[in-house]
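[Discussion] Sanity-checking designs against the backbone

I'm trying to build intuition for which residues belong where. Below is a structure token string of 373 positions. I'd appreciate it if someone posts a full sequence so I can compare it with mine line by line.
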């Protein structure tokens, strides 16, 4: 691979010189930041630096749930976070989903307003009857959403699941095609004259009063403002505030009978949905937190076995299935369930720690980052 000092005059002028904004990471947050910057600065040069030949984190590997909170997850949050913070986080998710709908459009990301079900296992406690009323009241008062959650008394007959004793329906959640979403954002970036340097890993950067020197494996380029959108790979910059979290997914071959919709269970630690006639099932990180705190893209055999057991006994009981594909991606979590949107100095800014709801908050985080300059 040629080093930057071996490039031609034309190449340097086009790709390296006079860059105003540099963004590290071509995931949902990096591309959203680029597009929001372009809306504010129509003529400045913007370059996205991505170490993979494709985005290589979570944005092209996720399950595609356009979600903002299941009742059991919100209950968990309300028990562990101040109430105002819980609703601030929900507000950011709803704002991000709205921005995503506006920017990308339902058709372009194959958005299906199929609703979601929060499934309660036999050993778990059901929710107090008035808790759904409290959530519905708060969502109406804070965001004008009518009757978000309800108890689905017929879920067992509808879906044929086993091992669940209750289900709560969320009428406002849905599914997207993750690949189409990222490809649409990429096309919008190209149309907005945003440059991409793929296969470019940023090793470190050095800030001065005027600019930031960005050191990559191919050489160094200068930008005036740098945005760190590397989520699960940003631990070196935030050692005490975030950590990587691997998430694993299985996809079945097409099934004779396939349920439709998006489903969560065990406070969001498991999730499944249909893709065509297939089931995508992910999760189980809570079975082995220590091993899953990693940036390595591998499968965990113990978690895989638990996912297979879930498919066999709970999701597809009595139906034969085969696994067509499996993969893992790297998310980012921390003790606080809230993204970090912060300036590290006057010309370096970070939008990281998206948790398990980056689809919902990614656009809002990009928008907030673009307003930091
Ligand atoms: C299996 C799985 C299922 C999920 N399901 C859902 C879901 O259903 N709904 C939902 O809302 N969220 C879900 N998520 C989470 C969601 O995908 C993420 O929160 C979101 O994609 C984060 O986007 P990002 O742009 O911040 O990070 P990423 O997509 O990880 O992008 C960061 C980019 O930075 C690049 N990078 C890192 N370091 C460097 C460097 N030094 N130099 C250059 N480039 C670098 C990486 O290659 C990567 O492309 C899921 C995640 C996984 C893994």
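Best answer:
Here's mine. Compare freely.
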């Amino acid at each position: 691979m040629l080093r930057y000092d071996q490039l031609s005059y034309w190449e340097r002028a086009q790709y390296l010189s006079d860059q105003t904004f540099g963004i590290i990471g071509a995931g949902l947050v990096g591309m959203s930041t680029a597009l929001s910057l372009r809306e504010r600065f129509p003529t400045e040069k913007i370059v996205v630096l991505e170490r993979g030949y494709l985005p290589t984190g979570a944005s092209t590997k996720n399950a595609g749930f356009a979600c903002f909170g299941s009742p059991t997850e919100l209950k968990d949050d309300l028990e562990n976070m101040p109430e105002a913070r819980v609703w601030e986080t929900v507000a950011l998710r709803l704002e991000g989903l709205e921005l995503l709908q506006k920017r990308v459009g339902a058709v372009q990301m194959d958005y299906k307003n199929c609703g979601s079900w929060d499934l309660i296992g036999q050993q778990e406690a059901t929710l107090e009857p008035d808790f759904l009323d409290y959530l519905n009241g708060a969502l109406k008062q804070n965001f004008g959403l009518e009757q978000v959650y309800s108890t689905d008394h017929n879920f067992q007959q509808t879906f044929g699941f086993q091992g669940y004793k209750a289900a709560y329906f969320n009428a406002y959640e849905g599914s997207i095609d993750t690949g189409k979403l990222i490809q649409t954002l990429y096309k919008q970036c190209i149309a907005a004259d945003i440059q991409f340097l793929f296969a470019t890993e940023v090793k470190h950067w050095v800030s001065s009063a005027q600019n930031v020197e960005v050191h990559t494996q191919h050489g160094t380029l200068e930008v005036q403002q740098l945005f760190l959108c590397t989520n699960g790979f940003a631990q070196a910059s935030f050692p005490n505030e975030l950590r990587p979290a691997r998430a694993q997914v299985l996809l079945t071959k097409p099934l004779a009978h396939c349920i439709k919709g998006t489903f969560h269970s065990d406070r969001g630690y498991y999730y499944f949905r249909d893709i065509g006639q297939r089931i995508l099932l992910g999760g189980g990180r809570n079975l082995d937190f220590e091993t899953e705190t990693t940036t390595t893209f591998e499968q965990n055999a113990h978690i895989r076995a638990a996912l297979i057991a879930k498919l066999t006994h709970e999701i597809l009981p009595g139906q034969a299935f085969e696994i067509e594909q499996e993969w893992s991606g790297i998310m980012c979590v921390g003790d606080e369930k809230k993204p970090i949107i912060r300036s590290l100095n006057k010309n370096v800014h970070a939008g990281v720690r998206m948790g398990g709801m980056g689809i919902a908050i990614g656009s809002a985080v990009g928008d907030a980052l673009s307003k930091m300059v």
